[in-house]
Amino acid sequence: MKEKPFAITLDVGSSLANRTGAWRTQLPVYVDRMPPCNQACPAGENIQQWLYHAESGDYEAAWRQLMRDNPLPAVMGRVCYHPCETACNRVQVDNAVGINAIERFLGDEAIRRGWTVEAPPESSGRRVLVVGSGPAGLSAAYHLRLLGHAVTIREAQDRLGGMMRYGIPRYRLPREVLDAEIDRIVALGVTVELGAKVDDVLAAQRDGAFDAVFLAVGAGIGRRAYVPAGDSARILDAVALLGGMEGEGPPLLGRRVAVYGGGNTAMDAARTARRLGATDAVVVYRRTRDRMPAHDIEVEEALEEGVRMKWLSTIKYADEGRLTIERMELDETGFPRPTGEFEELEADSVVLALGQDSDLSLLRDVPELAVDHGTVQVADGLMTGRPGVFAGGDMVPADRTVTVAVGHGKKAARHIDAYLRDTSYDPGAKHAPATFDRLNTWYYSDAPASVRPRLELARRVSTFDEVVQGLDESTALFEARRCMSCGNCFECDNCYGVCPDNAITKLGPGKGFAIDLDYCKGCGLCAAECPCGAIEMVTEE
Amino acid sequence: MSGAPQVKFYQVGSFAAGNRLLGPELQSDQADPGRSNTLTCGHRACQGCGEALGARYALDAAQRAAGGKVIAVNATGCLEVFSTPYPETSWQLPWLHSLFGNAPAVAAGVAAALRAKGRTDVRVVGQGGDGGTVDIGLGCLSGMFERNDDVLYICYDNEAYMNTGVQRSGATPPTARTATTQAVGEDPGAPFGQGKSLPLIAMAHEIPYVATATVAGLRDLEAKVHQAMSLRGARYLHVLVPCPLGWGTASHDTVRIARLAEQTGLFPVFEAVDGEVTDVTPIRRHLPVEEYLRPQKRYAHLFEPELRTDVIARLQRSADRNIARFGLLAQEEASS
């Protein structure tokens, strides 16, 4: 035995023998939570995940993640009203992450580089008919193809796109972008029949031997409110005006145009009128601005372009070159009430933008179908009362936006797939929300949002060039990196750093961290200092 | 802060320990999976101990800076007691302990021995709590400073004698309750007008480097250790390390409390070279002192049974004085 120094009787030991984990009453656990952007996305995009890829500059991986839910990113990056940004937790730090702008960047990048997706080589042997080629129909066709089913789209018009083509003006959605994304979907092997209006859905299903049908006929009929009018008054509806922009000659409106209504379509109509040469485009709306259904940004851009707004007004009588307007007032419930005060407004034409209805004539022989207020009633899985017949988009009760429609297409495709396989689709349980109070925002750099450049005003009122421009690469990257990764670990190493007991092991890129329960005392520092709230303290059993 | 790398915006910028998108040169030492872990698992510090955290932050950085050739000399105190109950040790570097008050002298002796042996590659770090540094070891430390011995001395300041039961030290702030400054009488807690600032005393020795830091500013602390290790002679680093036990705070709040000490201005974070302040870490989110005081039970008597706005205002004035004296706020906010 080796001689020990004076007064030393024991060999040197390590504190590793001391399992301090036994002190613990609370245990840190890594969790995943539902970020508010994902929660808010009507298309069900995993936004945080595609931002995660974009942050590292791997735009293709980001785009592919995006394409798992939405086949129209370049379109959506332009026309989506981005509820994700409204929900974004970063609003409470500085400004929301510019998710919509990054989505557009990724979509444009994919078109520029020719990225495509592949359908599985083997077919399920099942055939699905998609009626209508708007965002819901295209999205359903895309997802059904990825699931291995044969898909036929029947479109009444002579081009694909539905309201994206015949309703959204070019200055918001350039047609080459729309065409590129539609072509990519068609290239998956979708059979397209144009100018093929379906008059009787059951006959179409029977004759074509389709195993299931997805109805997405949209809402393409402009609602005609009765406006008393003289013989020579010029009255047309906004759907016809915007759709007519895709035809040969643009519709004739005159120099003074009144648009009747307060929705997004009214703004599109008024802005289109300005571009067609109207010196005076006036929106006549019976309530006030804060009650307008149009989105703020659309109203803002319309005002910038010189569109005038006449709030609290209804059109009482239309005559050649002039309208009689009645002033309204709001009662306690916010309902507009006539005041009996009248005024005149000079207008060469009146464009009605009072809402749209669906043409449901193709469903008249389907007995099980329920229609309420002009919309088709569907169950949770978007199946109508008739087994095998599904419906989505503007023709079912929901917000009428491209994003909602794309979401419907995806959802319907999954349920149609389950129906065809005689199973049921289970989306699985959702994670608990990643709320702002769970974040430790100290660790995020101060970084205000990037602003998307806009076309100069002079060109906006004279051309149909795109108004909102895209972000360049470095700005898109910066913007992606503003994401706080709410509720999901992004490997900032803070937990590994702040543990006073070295009880956390770093496993390497993409692998996260492990907690050594032999030594973790359960102090909770890792959870408290996690920037994104991805660690929870759980009481020990 | 001058020395910490200014990381270009990467989601969490330079405030977190690391980031998957950064190269190794821009990660903190603590983000390195191969970090030294100079103070390893199984030590008997309380849950959420700020001193255990601060000591590993500082010594891992010193090890990195010195290529793993550091000898540590420890004063008596919590750090020594919880890390080395005979015959165990948590230290993964050569480590000496002698007495409560003589750590700076022992460290100076180790440095002298190395000089005698011609070993310039091995570096010496002396360390202790505020009791061993500010009070009991001050004579030895002042001697180490004035002789300009080649030692980096690090004080982990938790503002009282925690190991022996939370007695007041020369670093205990006014109004804090300790076992020897009870929250009773007209002016409860530690009195105003007593205590001292050791960083300022160290600066008066005009040694090559003096700096302050907290466990809330990991990258700042590491940068200061690296800066100190790049120099020879007597250097002093004063690190604020909250003590959940003595301060009456939740164990998960250790870093947050240190951050609040910085952001209220009560603990100025700065660097000084040859006796002159050369750089300060500016306050990023300025907060009233109440935000710092309220979560700590040692200040509970300022809020209950009655709210002592007069005392809180006096503490606010001392924070404001720090802010003015060291220039801790950007110009526009300081003047408003």
Give a description of the structure:
The complex is a heterodimer of chains A (541) and B (336). Chain A has 541 residues and is α/β, with parallel strands linked by helices. Among the domains of chain A are: 16-32 and 489-539, Alpha-Beta Plaits (2-Layer Sandwich), CATH 3.30.70.20; 127-221 and 357-420, 3-Layer(bba) Sandwich (FAD/NAD(P)-binding domain); 225-352, FAD/NAD(P)-binding domain. Chain A has helices spanning 36-40, 47-55, 59-67, 73-79, 83-87, 99-113, 135-146, 163-166, 175-186, 201-208, 238-244, 264-275, 296-304, 402-420, 457-460, 473-480, 494-498, 525-528, and strands at residues 13-14, 26-30, 127-131, 150-154, 191-193, 212-215, 221-222, 235-237, 256-260, 280-284, 308-310, 313-319, 322-330, 336-346, 349-352, 356-357, 371-372, 375-376, 389-391, 504-508, 512-515, 535-539. In chain A, a hairpin with a 5-residue loop joins strand 13 and strand 14 (336-346). The relative contact order of chain A is 0.17. With 336 residues, chain B is of the alpha/beta class. Chain B has a single domain (24-335), classed as Thiamin diphosphate (ThDP)-binding fold, Pyr/PP domains (Rossmann fold, 3-Layer(aba) Sandwich), CATH 3.40.50. Chain B is 34% helix and 13% strand. The longest helix of chain B has 18 residues, at 309-326. The interface between A and B is large, with 54 and 50 residues. Strand 1 of chain A pairs parallel with strand 2 (88-89) of chain B.
